[in-house]
Amino acid sequence: MTIQQLLKTAPVTTLLLISFIGLFIIQVLSGVDANNPSTEELLKWGANALPYTMDSEPWRLASSAFLHIGLMHLLFNGFAMYFFGQIAEPMFGSAKFLALFLLAAIGGNLLNNHITWQGILDGTGQPGISAGASGGIMGIGAALLIAALFKISVNGMVLNLKSLIIIMGINLVYGFAVPGIDNAGHIGGAVTGLVIALAFALAYRQRLAATLQIVPSRDGDIYQTTYINSPVNRDTDFSADTSRFENDNPRFDNDGNFDNNSSFNHDSAVNLPVNSHANHASLNHSKLDEQQTATKSTLIWQVLPWLVMLLISIGFIWWWQDIHQQILLVLAAIE
């Protein structure tokens, strides 16, 4: 896939990759070692470190996701973002994809700081430094796991659940096996991504069910004239759930809403019997009520992923404040 194609298909993924590479180039041009940057240099450029992040610089929870410790670290995360992003961004939408990445990265950094702080309290750990997009990427990978589990298709192809499990497993095992890797960040990012993706999947399934109520259907001996197109949604489609609508499946847009601009198959028309005007009016009124109810239900479910991400954000703020207050209490006791 060329840069132009990637920019068109996944603009946020493209911008994230550009920001990773651009920041690294600026660092190197300013004198930072491309393979072994010093701790001082990493702190200067926004790395995550408990004494700073949990004191007065919480912005490091996000900034560290764009900073990489050496060229190999950048290449590894860059390739992972490229392959995951071009699938996940069209599936979830650019705005939700960006929110997913940032929240997963922040969740991973918070778990890292939480474990570090507990280790300090127990006398078994000491402050460290971390950076990289791994937490956010693991969140995206976990979200794709949920998409595969719910059999969401991308351009007509369903993700392979087994392959995704293997990829995620290798990353976690590698993190435990190799010293110096922030595995807490990986786990925190993955868990955050799982929770957000569950909200995505549940909302999509419920919106799809609500939207299908809008499609006119047979009611006793009275038939509503309807023109139904075959399934052609190639962006996001619950293929497992729509198989039972084999002969009456409407076309949907990316948000799971009925596409009024889709073409119609006139061979599927069913005409009303003659002398049924009264029943027809009653049926139309009933169908209108059902459509309005279904539309309201669809709008409610569209808000769910954003509501879940808002609650997660509030939870992260509380988590940071909790660790921050503990640190202040310990410092006050020492003084």
TrEMBL record:
Q: Start and end of every Peptidase S54 rhomboid domain?
A: 56-200
**What is the name listed in the Swiss-Prot or TrEMBL entry for this protein?**
Membrane associated rhomboid family serine protease
Q: State the Gene Ontology terms under molecular function.
A: serine-type endopeptidase activity
Sorted alphabetically, the Gene Ontology cellular component annotations on this record are:
membrane
What is the source species?
A: Psychrobacter luti
State where the protein is found.
Answer: Membrane
Similarity comment: family membership: Belongs to the peptidase S54 family.
- UniProt keyword terms in alphabetical order: Hydrolase, Membrane, Protease, Transmembrane, Transmembrane helix
Question: What membrane topology was assigned to this protein in its record?
Answer: Multi-pass membrane protein
